[in-house]
């Protein structure tokens, strides 16, 4: 596709150098990860982090995830635990975020963590962000690159739609493979899943050989409280559309090919459905449907994360 957007760049050595320089000057860059696209800035810099909150119109009480290239760097900022090492070994780099206690000596900006004494850390698995992190001497704070409470972006063009020319650099690396945000697990006390993702609690339990305490912690995950992941159109779950003015989000092979039917995965693959979720909701929004109805999606594996996002979007 011809690139008509002056702030969207393909990734190469020149843009890598430019991005690293720009991040070192406390600026913000839109970039891909394997889950969704993010808005990256220096996690140690008050100035950079303030810019992220302002761009996203994000409530100041909702902390950001800090992204690292290797354990040795994260060690400077957080207390790593035995559960962390077990999960790291199995899943990292990858789509999982750990909440850990912050070290007194950490240089992380209090704005990054919304002044909490814990930090959310992640080791992303995408060649673009990995090569950027390698060249920086600070980690990157990076929320999803959408306006607060809106749909997460899974392409550089989605990021452009959210911020237009307010960003000087958006790096394009095609569609995010996973398409849904990382699993967030709190390891600062008894392990607890705060946000379901592609890596399921079942898989995590198997590795940690434990049971989880009750899901969700109001105080600890401020970002999970309100309406979120919303396309800005009313969503009705488990119901059929009343007419063709309404979009029908479906899953599996028993649905017809109708204009207002949007199938997340014809072959009934939940991972494929997760990867298609935000992309499809954005499409429905662009086609100006007034309501979205959602067919039942199996509540197992990636289905748990899909249902979580849809439920929050419908609030
Ligand atoms: O896949 C992802 O995780 C993406 C990519 C870009 O890495 N990032 C992402 O960030 O989804 P964001 O800001 O959209 O979501 C971060 C979530 C929020 O729900 C926030 O409240 C929670 O993590 N969080 C961050 N720090 C926390 C902390 N110290 N304690 C509890 N929850 C925290
Ligand atoms: Mg987000």
If you had to describe this structure to a student in words, what would you say it looks like?
The strands form 3 sheets. The chain has an 8-stranded mixed beta sheet, sandwiched between helices. A 4-stranded parallel beta sheet has the order 11-14-12-13. Strands 1-8 form a two-stranded parallel ribbon. Helices cover 29% and strands 17% of the residues. Strand 2 (29-31) and strand 3 form a beta hairpin. It has 9 helices and 14 strands. The longest helix has 17 residues, at 270-286. It is an alpha/beta fold and 315 residues long. The structure holds threonylcarbamoyladenylate (TXA) and magnesium ion. Threonylcarbamoyladenylate binds next to strand 5, strand 6 and strand 10.
Short description:
With 315 residues, this protein is α/β, with parallel strands linked by helices. It is built from 9 helices and 14 strands. The chain has an 8-stranded mixed beta sheet with strand order 2-3-7-4-6-5-9-10, with helices on both faces. It has a 4-stranded parallel beta sheet with strand order 11-14-12-13. Strands 1-8 form a two-stranded parallel sheet.
What is this structure's SSE topology?
Layout: E1 8-10, H1 13-24, E2 29-31, E3 38-42, H2 46-56, E4 65-67, H3 71-74, H4 82-91, E5 96-101, E6 118-122, H5 127-135, E7 140-141, H6 156-163, E8 170-172, E9 183-186, E10 192-195, H7 201-208, E11 235-237, E12 246-250, E13 261-263, H8 270-286, E14 291-294, H9 302-313
Parallel strand pairs: 1-8, 4-6, 5-9, 11-14, 12-13, 12-14
Antiparallel strand pairs: 2-3, 3-7, 4-7, 5-6, 9-10
Helix pairs in contact: 8-9
């Amino acid at each position: 596709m011809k690139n008509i957007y002056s702030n969207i760049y393909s990734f190469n050595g020149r843009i890598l150098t430019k991005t690293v320089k720009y991040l070192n000057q406390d600026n913000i860059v839109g970039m891909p990860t394997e889950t969704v696209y993010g808005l990256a800035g220096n996690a140690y810099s008050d100035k950079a982090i303030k810019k992220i909150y302002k761009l996203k119109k994000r409530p100041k009480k909702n902390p950001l995830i800090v992204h690292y290239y290797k354990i040795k760097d994260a060690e400077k900022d957080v207390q790593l635990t035995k559960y962390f090492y077990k999960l790291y070994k199995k899943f990292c780099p990858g789509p999982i975020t750990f909440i850990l206690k912050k070290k007194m000596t950490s240089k992380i900006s209090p704005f990054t963590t919304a002044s909490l004494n814990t930090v959310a850390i992640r080791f992303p698995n995408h060649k673009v962000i990995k090569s950027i992190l390698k060249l920086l001497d600070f980690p990157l704070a990076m929320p999803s690159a959408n306006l607060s409470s809106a749909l997460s972006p899974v392409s550089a063009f989605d990021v452009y739609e959210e911020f237009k020319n307010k960003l000087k650099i958006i790096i394009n690396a095609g569609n995010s493979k996973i398409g849904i945000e990382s699993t967030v697990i709190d390891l600062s006390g008894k392990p607890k899943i705060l946000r379901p993702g592609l890596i399921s609690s079942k898989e995590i339990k198997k590795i940690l050989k434990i049971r989880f305490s009750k899901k969700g912690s109001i105080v600890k995950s401020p970002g999970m409280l309100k309406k979120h992941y919303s396309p800005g159109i009313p969503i009705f779950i488990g119901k059929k559309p009343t007419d063709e003015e309404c979009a029908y989000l479906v899953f599996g092979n028993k649905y017809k090919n109708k204009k207002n039917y949007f199938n997340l995965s014809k072959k009934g693959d939940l991972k494929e459905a997760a990867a298609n979720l935000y992309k499809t909701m954005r499409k429905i929004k662009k086609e100006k449907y007034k309501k979205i109805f959602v067919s039942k999606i199996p509540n197992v594996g990636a289905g748990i994360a899909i249902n979580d996002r849809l439920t929050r979007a419908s609030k």
